[in-house]
Amino acid sequence: MIIEGKIIKIAGPVIIADGMRGAQMLEMVRVGDEKLIGEIIELEGDTATIQVYEETAGIQPGEVVECTGGALSVELGPGVMSSIFDGIQRPLRIIREESGDFIARGIDVDSVNKEKKWTFKPVAKVGDVLKAGDVLGEVQETTAVLHKIMVPPHLEGEVTEIAAEGDYNVLEDIAEVGGEKVQMLQKWPVKRSRPYVRKLDPDVPLVTGQRAQDTFFSVAKGGAAAIPGPFGSGKTVTQQQLAKWADADIVVYIGCGERGNEMTEVLTEFPFLDDPKTGNPLMDRTVLIANTSNMPVAAREACVYTGITIAEYYRDQGYDVALMADSTSRWAEAMREISGRLEEMPGEEGYPAYLASRLAQFYERAGRVETIGSEPHVASISVVGAVSPPGGDLSEPVTQNTLRICKVFWALDASLADKRHFPSIDWLQSYSLYVDSIEGWWAENVAADWRATRDQAMSLLQKESELQEIVQLVGPDALPETDQATLETTRMLREDFLQQNAFDDVDTYCAPDKQYKMLKTILLFYKESLAAVNRGAPIANIVALPVKEEIGKIQSAITKQCSEA
Amino acid sequence: MNTNIKTREYTTVSEVSGPLMVVEGVEGVGYNEIVDIETPTGEKRSGQVLEVTKDVAVIQVFEGTNDLNTKDTKTRFTGQTAKIGVSRDMMGRIFNGIGKPIDGGPEIIPDEELDINGAPMNPASREFPEEFIQTGISTIDGMNTLVRGQKLPIFSGSGLPHNDLAVQIARQAKVLGADDEFAVIFAAMGITNEEANFFMRDFERTGALEKLTVFMNLADDPAIERILTPKMALTTAEYYAFTLGMQVLVILTDMTNYCEALREISAAREEVPGRRGYPGYMYTDLAGIYERAGRIDGKEGSITQMPILVMPQDDITHPIPDLTGYITEGQIVLSREISRKGIYPPVDVLPSLSRLMSGGIGGDKTRDDHSGVSDQLYSAYAEGRELRDLVAVVGEEALTERDQKFLEFAQAFEDQFITQSKDEDRTIFETLDLGWSLLKILPKAELKRVKEEFIEQYLPKDD
Fold first, then answer.
1. Which of A45, A126, A356, A358 could be disulfide-bonded to A401 (CB atoms 3.0-4.6 Å)?
2. Cα B274 to Cα B320: distance, rounded to the nearest angstrom
3. pLDDT in tens, A212-235
4. Which DSSP string do the residues of A129-164 spell out, in sequence order?
């Protein structure tokens, strides 16, 4: 029986309906004559409070609310990759075809194309006994992604039927497992995490090709990093750089309550960017979720869940997924806005009391895991969440609660950005707790003394900030020459190593090997200039050496992968 | 019951409080619907439904609630959300904050009636903004370039000359080399009569009015009307841009007054307040305004926005500039310190930023050396400014020769590059050449951010 209620109150994105007895918490509903999509967020007796994912103007009390019987879910299957969705997984390109350049209300479109035929290649055979997560067959979804059709998580048993190689749409039966027909399309409620066997220690770095991040504040595959920073400090460019260059198989990019033009930039740029690994367009392995700031606020709340559920689905296929959320503050604000409309008791700065637990639940869906299935493989989701603290004040609740969970902190600093030092990652404030666990990877793949080199550079930068205090008091000439040599070196570290030009064709990506060698070169210069100073050479002569200028040009002069030093 | 269901007219007002009015016993009222109100003296006003339950509607009254009573105030529900009738004839005309002509001219005969709330632009339909708009202001064109479809606010402080800058931009803004139709929509919210006169005089004096459409909400107009003014202006802009194919620049001043009005209504509704009493949905509300800037793939026109806002106590972390900065694509910051030195326009380039600059400049758009010059001016000026602090402590003599050059540069930069007169319209090429002549002050080896070939080509030679 379909439960139908009637609207009794409307206030912005929140409506209240009665006659809803029997409806479930978090059930998806259709609201009003225009059948807007909504979700039940509170039940009391006969009445249900519903957040509506679309604009509610013109809706009247007395209109019908229809239950759908299921929770808000995403559709998973071939066709998800290289799509661009809104916060509730409606494909924006299809919406454009249906309603023009502005998004109309009540549009009902399929998340995944139901007619398109995909070439399915069976892998399992009749008679195989499979577990949930085992691969039934494969579909080449894009040039970059081989989509594995898996036994859905609730199912296991003997394969009694399997389709022959051929073209099928996502709704056609392609197998029968344990007496149940299986299609390529799966549905999964966004607020539940998909199952895995166990979580593993993160000891492989997510190589991003960004010097400041990789060398000093590395995030591990399966880790979570937070980028807080005031506006204009370069959060978005940093995020986009990671999306472009991180060595993940799949990228899920969530534009949550951000600028429309920025999403367009991603949309217009990604199809033309070559993946450094495969040479294919980056878009072939990217899923975009775009819920810009002027799109309905409730859908903004949903978009991070939609994104991470899609990420989990590709992780289950054995891929390393990198998920960028820009920005989690907008997500938290959406929660606050809805909570305010519900007249809930506010916590800190008006945010709801459940802010911390929601953030934790989201970030905990990241991780390096052993996937389900009879032959478990290792796959990961790494999450990079941008935080936009009001006024750049890091003591605000969203930043603080995020830092309690994330092990990597890239602090973006407005004064660095003012000086056009990009990425404006403050090297003194930022940290990564993965440095110890990924040390082995660097030693094995790049150089045995990587850790020592990194630590030496870091301690020089620390020393610089102490010396700067003295310089502020007595001027640079009053320092001993050895300290002046240190300052010259750290200036090189800052200008030639930490700064990286995202818009330079070469400098935009810097391979780990090149990073290590650049660092080595600068430290060699330091060692030699110290030696020279000790032999009595004046520091001004050393500073004027042409080799110093040469080093400054390594950034862009030498190719990305280069190994000469 | 004294209601008439057919015309849906009610006299059942039960409460009047601040800008709000509560009507009971209503039926079939939609959220956000527009309401016609007749006061006991027969005056006509309008309002909008803010909240509706089974038989009670909360209405915000646009022209103020004075004289309303609970006895004979008549309310009629129109069944429509707020609309504006738009037409090409609106060019060169002046309207009040809710779209009625106030220049003595005839009523507008609309070509189309449009919902002022608009609908969100589909991100998949947008085209990335990358065409240069020349404002004639060096600090903007050279270092914080405005491009078509961008939203770039001016953050000012009370007493700073943002109005002068606004009219200068409204007058000078143009698209280089294209013969596209260019229109400016000027929406003023909560400005004083004196300011309004200043704007009007200037527009008439310079003959700028013919490409202008003005929406004027004055400080003594009801605050609540201010909520509608930017939406009226932007709906008109969308019509100009996407139906008529024009390049539209929308100047909104002053967004601080708009936010104050938003707070006033929120307080009257007894909502849970967010930071500093502003409503929790202010970000979403502001985004609904700013995000209406942009270009659409396959359409001629564009909407570019320059909102102006006065930062309370010059505090850039105040919720209004803060939330604005998170939505807009950069900001132009006016500085009291620079203004005190007598410099006009007092643009502080260091905290200023245009996020869309890199796409809108370069060889085919402005000139190939543009990005290098801009970066070099930025870093050199930043260094010069930093050295000033040091000089304050240790004195100028303690500086190296190199550092003294940077100090000299910073001074020259402020005197020649930032400074320009109120009707000086510099082309982008003049701006860039000026930049080069200032860079000449620095040792050549310090020009690390410009490519060698451009130094060769553009740096003035010694002679």
1. A356
2. 12
3. 999 999 999 999 999 988 777 888
4. EE-TT-EEEEEE-SSS-EEEEE--TT--EEEEEEPP
What is the ipTM metric for this complex?
0.81
Chain A within 8 Å of B296 (Cβ-Cβ)?
yes
- pLDDT digits 0-9 by tens, B181-211: 889 999 999 999 999 999 888 888 887 788 8
Residue for token pair 């060595």:
A247
The CA-atom distances, in angstroms, between A223 and each of A214, A358, A385, A439 are 13, 18, 11, 15
Distance of CA A185 to the CA centre of its chain: 24
| Residues of B in Cβ contact (< 8 Å) with A333 | 280, 283-284
CA end-to-end distance (rounded Å), chain A: 73
Nearest chain B residue (CA) to A98: B122
Cβ contact B123–A92 (<8 Å)? yes
CB contact B443 to A (< 8 Å): no
Chain B partners within 8 Å of A349 (Cβ):
274-275
Contact state of B126 with A333 under an 8 Å Cβ cutoff: no
HSE (side-chain half, CA atoms, 13 Å) at A290: 28
CB contact A505 to B (< 8 Å): no
B378 reaches A (C-beta below 8 A): yes
CB contact under 8 A, A55 and B128: no
Cross-chain Cβ contact B296/A393 below 8 Å: no
- Helix, strand or coil, per DSSP, at residue A486: helix
Q: Name B87's Cβ contacts closer than 8 Å, sequence gap at least 6.
A: B108, B109, B110, B111, B112
Contact A277, A155 (CB under 8 A): no
User: Is A555's pLDDT higher than 80?
Assistant: no
Interatomic CA distance for residues A470 and A314, integer angstroms: 53
Probe site for chain B from A8, A261, A266, A348 (most B CB atoms < 10 A): A261
Find all residues with CB under 8 Å of B462, minimum gap 6, and list them: none
Angle, CA B420 vertex, CA B418 and CA B423 arms, to 5°: 145
Q: What is the mean pLDDT of chain A?
A: 88
The residues pairing with B24 across neighbouring beta strands, listed in sequence order, are: B56
Q: Strands, DSSP E only, in B219-301?
A: 247-253, 294-296
Q: Which pLDDT score is estimated for A557?
A: 64
Q: How confident is the model at residue A556 (pLDDT cuts 50, 70, 90)?
A: low
AA letter at B348? D
Q: Using an 8 Å Cβ cutoff, are B319 and B180 in contact?
A: no
- How many CB atoms neighbour CB A90 within 10 A? 20
- Residues B423 and B344: their CA atoms lie apart, in Å, by 11
**CA B75 vs CA B6, B20, B30: distances in Å:** 13, 13, 14
**Do strands A146-150 and A135-140 pair parallel, antiparallel, or not at all (unpaired)?**
antiparallel
- The reply to whether B400 touches chain A by the CB within 8 Å rule is yes
- From the CA of B323, how many Å to the nearest CA of chain A? 7
Across the interface, of A236, A340, A473, the residue whose CB is closest to B393 is A473
A203 in contact with chain B, both atoms CB, cutoff 8 A:
no
Q: Are A87 and A35 contacting, i.e. CB atoms less than 8 angstroms apart? A: no
Orientation angle between helical segments A512-534 and A481-492, nearest 10 degrees = 160
Looking at the complex, report in whole angstroms how far the Cα of residue A136 sits from the nearest Cα belonging to chain B: 34
